[in-house]
Write a structure and sequence with these properties.
Layout: E1 5-10, H1 15-26, E2 36-41, H2 47-60, E3 65-71, H3 74-77, E4 83-86, H4 98-115, E5 122-125, H5 130-139, E6 149-152, H6 154-168, E7 175-176, E8 180-181, E9 189-190, E10 196-197, E11 200-201, H7 202-206, H8 209-231, H9 237-251, E12 260-266, E13 271-278, E14 281-282, H10 290-309
Parallel strand pairs: 1-2, 1-4, 2-3, 4-5, 5-6
Antiparallel strand pairs: 6-12, 7-10, 8-9, 10-11, 12-13, 13-14
This protein binds ligand NAX.
The site of ligand NAX has 28 residues, from helix 1.
């Protein structure tokens, strides 16, 4: 039997947490021969609810689950973790300005960065604003290589794959090389120029530039809001699924005709900016058209503004 891998999940009593921890404990994320010790972090006020999550973990009797550590002190809960999925974040409250949201979340990621300041731990930031939270975390975890931190863009990639597959009337497995650039926000840039469908360029299969520029991008970027409107709650199952895939993207070899998207630190920009990655390296020389180039400038500008709003925490 392999050594247990210690996986931290923050915001574990929240909606995404509830869709995520059971899948990790079952072996779906790291493999059915890898024992797991879960480290669950919540705010003080949600610890009771977290107890319920733990009771249900017990009741699943997962053979691979070798233990659960839980609490509200990041220094204690993160002790010894190998992988940390940071879902917990403060949602935007009524009347709250975007600037306040950025600042409140920055404070969370300052303290979590300090608590995770250890080489070797892989950190996926899911809590929004994910890219800027990742930047704050990285600046407060000085000993941690920046390559060990990513922000989640997999959900946007998966949404883009699903939209292209539907339009082309093929299964999602036929759609590959879908990059999302920039910020996890409505300025994100889903790349139709490099995507392939059944091995051909998506543009040649769909042959409708107007649809690609407008409907495709709008559907992907507004999907989160549409789900809130339909469900009364934000996406949780699909977000948890994407978190699991993001970790798999990180630890497994990338299939040779594909790549994946994640927010990574770009030293020349001093930002966590989403890129296409193959075997953990940014795919160089991806060409996009002028329309997408303009959009990439806008998403970068937004990330710079977010960084300016949290400057005191960097
Ligand atoms: P919930 O509000 O259901 O759960 C969040 C949980 O985090 C709560 O239980 C809360 O008590 C906890 N929490 C807050 N501050 C914490 C802290 N300092 N330490 C530990 N736990 C803390 O939200 P949920 O729907 O689960 O979404 C969580 C986050 O994911 C949100 O910020 C959301 O915007 C973000 N998302 C990011 C996505 C991405 O693609 N990057 C997609 C899905 C999701 O919207």
């Amino acid at each position: 039997m392999k050594e247990p891998v210690r996986v931290a999940v923050t915001g574990a009593a929240g909606q995404i947490g509830y869709s995520l921890v059971y899948r990790i404990a079952s072996g779906q994320m790291l493999g059915y021969d890898v024992p797991i010790i879960l480290h669950l972090l919540e705010v003080e006020g949600a610890l009771n609810s977290l107890k319920g999550v733990e009771m249900e973990l017990d009741d699943c009797a997962f053979p691979l689950l070798h233990g659960v550590v839980s609490g509200s002190d990041p220094n204690k809960v993160f002790d010894g973790v190998d992988v940390a999925i940071l879902v917990g974040a403060k949602p935007r409250g009524k009347g709250m300005e975007r600037k306040d949201l950025l600042q409140d979340n920055a404070k969370i990621f300052v303290s979590q960065g300090k608590a995770l300041n250890r080489k070797g731990v892989k950190i996926l930031v899911v809590g929004n604003p994910a890219n800027t939270n990742a930047l704050v975390l990285s600046k407060n975890a000085k000993d941690l290589p920046k390559e060990n931190i990513r922000s989640m863009m997999r959900l946007d990639q998966n949404r883009a794959i699903a939209v292209l597959a539907k339009k082309a009337n093929v299964l999602t497995k036929e759609v590959k090389r879908v990059a999302i650039y920039g910020n996890h926000s409505t300025t994100m840039v889903p790349d139709y120029c490099n995507a392939t469908i059944s091995g051909r360029k998506a543009i040649d299969v769909i042959k409708d530039k107007e649809w690609l520029e407008k409907d495709f991008i709008d559907t992907v970027k507004n999907r989160g809001a549409q789900i809130i409107e339909a469900r009364g709650l934000s996406s949780a199952a699909s977000a948890a699924n994407s978190a699991i895939q993001s970790i798999q993207d990180w630890v497994l070899k990338t299939p040779k005709d594909d790549f994946f998207s994640a927010g990574v630190y770009m030293p020349e920009k001093d930002l966590f900016y989403s890129q296409a990655l193959f075997d953990q390296k940014i795919v160089a020389d991806l060409k996009v058209d002028e329309f997408l180039e303009e959009k990439m400038k806008a998403t970068e500008k937004e990330l710079i503004e977010e960084r300016d709003a949290v400057r005191i925490y960097l």
